Amino acid sequence: MRFNNGHFGVFLILISNSGIADDLNKNDNTVIQERIELNGVDWQVINDGVMGGLSLGSTKFLDSTIVFSGDISIENNGGFSSVYRPVLGLSTQFDSIGLQVLGDGNLYQVRIRSQIEGYSLTYKVDFYASKNIEQYLTFKLSDFQASFRGRLIPGAPELKPENITHVGFLVTSKQPTSFALTVKGITFYLSSSLNE
């Protein structure tokens, strides 16, 4: 599949425990946002077994967080594990996503699935999850890149919030490794509504 609406760039902002993180944690109406509920029910793990691999990943609901953990195997051309949960009915105003995570030193992808004119597309942004450090990360939706089996799709349409159906994470490695990512918060929001 190939589209003709231009290409994308990727960028990542690491934020401290103040500023944007404080704004996203407010419960008033100053920020146009929607927090995604972190429960132990809606998450679906997809390992590389769908392609013959032997990697194992799982999720655990612990103290209002989701822990995505397991082991990556490169046997049988494997090497990835992913997890998704449904997200429906997002406001068309949203232009950003904020994450609160506790990492393990591995490279991850934020993955967003989108339904566009009957086609399902997956968009991604990479981020490094610093080991044992709580991070607040924010991404513009326009910075997500459409991909299929690890390859970018040139000219794919820009990611729009009203088309989003799932959000999740993927970890991949060319070496056997263990992983554990603790997800403490996922918020879609309108960046211009943040307090100065």
From TrEMBL:
NADH:ubiquinone oxidoreductase intermediate-associated protein domain mapped to chain residues: 42-183
Pfam families, alphabetized: CIA30
InterPro entries xref list: Galactose-bd-like_sf, NADH-UbQ_OxRdtase-assoc_prot30, NDUFAF1
Listed SUPFAM superfamilies: Galactose-binding domain-like
Family: Belongs to the CIA30 family.
Protein name: CIA30 family protein
Origin species: Thalassotalea algicola
